[in-house]
Amino acid sequence: MSGGHGHGHSHGGAAAHAGGRHRWRLAVAFGLVGAFFLVELAAGLLSGSLALLSDAGHMAADVVTLGAALVATRVATRADTTGRRTFGSYRAEVFASGLAVLLMLGVSVYIAIEAVGRIGASPEIASGTMLVVGVIGLVVNLVALVMLRGGAGESLNVKGAYLEVVADTVGSVGVIVAALLVRATGSAWWDTAVALTIAVFVAVRAVGLGREVLAVLGQHAPTGIDPADLEQALAEVPGVTEVHDLHVWTLTSGMDVATAHLVTAPQDAGQQVLDQASRMLRERFHVAHATLQVETTDRSECRGADW
């Protein structure tokens, strides 16, 4: 077995550098959303509005997400001092996303239980407070959107935070609608209905995010990459006669990793095969880090792991 390896290293790369450049945007958005979350939570408890409480819960998840994005831009460039984190600490972002999923599901369950408890009751809802807080929330979210939009096209972390704030803006609109309907009709049912709508929206997003987290932790093939297509593309590299032991997975968002054994004829230049295969993986599949081992056809077997 010929021991050649091809590496495409860009763990930090342009994405991490872009995230560092736009870190101030994340910090400002984190401060705005975090401060308003406290205001909305207090207003929801004082006004008796489930819509405000449900949106506050959604904003709490956004605070975690924005905080994770901030941490990720710092962790991505931090050197490992233990010598044991061979892939660095990039999955800190994934674990933080998992925490956000649990928080979002908890909020959804709480709102659903509270809504069921209000069946047959007519709670007093301070629609004026709802309306004021909803409008302030909308303004805060719009400011955060403007702040994050400038970096969303360059950094995956900033893009993820931007999409979270977009969803929060929808929640603020829902609170405003609920407040206007409660004020116009005098019925607290509208507050409960909007709260349940927001809770379902949050739960659906939580399940979707949870599936992504589990896919990364389970080392599934990255979204948009078919391992069979990747194997076929490697087999088409000039000089490659066979591909086996192919593995491809996501380390964290925007960082896909692959390993494979490539079989070539003894006379073929191993380094040339490695260079062409690595370049193809970067340009066609956006796999920035690939470890490729070259074997020649005169070897009777590949002595690798038996699993």
Automatic annotation (TrEMBL):
Residues 27-217 form the Cation efflux protein transmembrane domain. The chain crosses the membrane at residues 26-50, 56-73, 94-113, 125-148, 160-182, 188-207. Keywords: Ion transport, Membrane, Transmembrane, Transmembrane helix, Transport. It is a multi-pass membrane protein. Residues 225-295 form the Cation efflux protein cytoplasmic domain. Its main location: membrane. The keyword Lyase does not apply. Pfam families: Cation_efflux (PF01545), ZT_dimer (PF16916). It comes from the Bacteria. Gene3D superfamilies: Cation efflux protein transmembrane domain, Cation efflux protein, cytoplasmic domain. It is found in: Membrane. Belongs to the cation diffusion facilitator (CDF) transporter (TC 2.A.4) family. SLC30A subfamily. PANTHER family: CATION EFFLUX PROTEIN/ ZINC TRANSPORTER, RE54080P-RELATED. This is Cation diffusion facilitator family transporter. It comes from Terrabacter lapilli. The lineage of its organism: Bacteria, Bacillati, Actinomycetota, Actinomycetes, Micrococcales.
